[in-house]
Design a protein that fits this description.
Helicase, Ruva Protein, domain 3; alpha/beta; 13 helices; 2 domains
Length: 289
């Protein structure tokens, strides 16, 4: 741990249950966030005393790492960070995050059965990899899609390897069309959740073969995207294929673990998505245990 309580990029901080060989510690050091003055965390903690009705789960969720994320998201401005956090507490209650994660997950399972969004493996910095494949869209219901999104974000955060807290998003646009494109409303609500209620969660978003249709929609929603978030979005073309000595291949090899990356992206994991296997073991966040 550093002097202010942040985790350092040291092999000893990686859980023994995870392979330390999965982590490139030089890359990890580059991706870990900057330190936060403990006094600012204490100020946030003091403001949180106004919330006298926090549940035991909420109290565990509101650990120092959580407060640091909101402080970083608001450039260390305590008042703005607290306002943002208070809005998230309100949102989590109205959305029903706890009930969603501890419930029967029937809606999430139904939304997930085609393999449109799921978590699999980690990149070289320990970030969990969240795959999104819009071509497998099987629903037009915004509520169900957002429930699956929140479940998947919680699962991705939980499957990142400490001290890593962020996630990697891999968006595969193969087969993307108007038929499977989300509505602008769904995209805006997705961005709202990502930016305002899961701040400092996205490490990088890798967009594979984004078509002109997506580029048009991206331009429509870009004004609503935080500039810092926009910088994390990378567009990758695989016109030469990931098996060639291409820029795309070198990029993917420099970021992902080949053993856990799916074969269609240059990795060596050929196993197709299985809803049964994905939900065979219930995921429960650490703060709910």
């Amino acid at each position: 741990m550093t002097a202010n309580g942040n985790s350092s990029a040291d092999p000893s901080t990686v859980p023994s249950s995870r392979k330390k060989s999965e982590i490139n510690f030089d890359l990890l050091k580059e991706t870990l966030p900057s330190d936060v003055d403990p006094k600012l965390v204490d100020e946030m903690r003091g403001l949180l005393k106004q919330h006298t009705d926090l549940s035991s789960v909420e109290q565990k969720w509101l650990d120092d790492n959580c407060l640091r994320r909101y402080l970083r998201a608001r450039k260390m401005d305590v008042k703005k960070a607290y306002k943002m956090l208070a809005e998230t507490i309100k949102w989590r209650r109205s959305f029903g995050v706890e009930g969603l994660l501890l419930g029967d997950l029937q809606t999430v399972k139904k939304e997930s059965e085609t393999g449109k969004t799921y978590v699999r493996g980690n990149d070289q910095t320990g970030r969990a990899v969240l795959y999104m494949k819009p071509r497998n869209q099987n629903s037009k219901e915004t509520k169900g899609q957002l429930q699956q999104l929140v479940y998947t974000l919680e699962r991705a955060r939980g499957e990142s390897i400490p001290p890593q807290e962020k996630i990697t998003l891999l968006l595969d646009f193969k087969g993307y069309s108007m038929k499977n494109a989300p509505s602008v409303k769904t995209m805006r609500e997705t961005l709202n959740i990502l930016q305002n209620h899961y701040p400092e969660t996205l490490g990088i978003a890798v967009c594979i073969e984004a078509p002109a249709l997506f580029s048009t929609m991206y331009k429509m929603i870009k004004p609503f995207i935080d500039p810092d978030t926009a910088k994390k979005i990378q567009f990758v073309s695989k016109t030469k294929g990931f098996k060639e000595d291409s820029k795309a291949k070198r990029f993917m090899e420099g970021l992902f673990n080949k053993e856990t990356l799916e074969t269609e992206f240059g990795g060596s994991d050929p196993e197709p998505y299985s809803n049964e296997k994905y939900f065979a073991e219930r995921f429960v966040p650490e703060y709910m245990r």
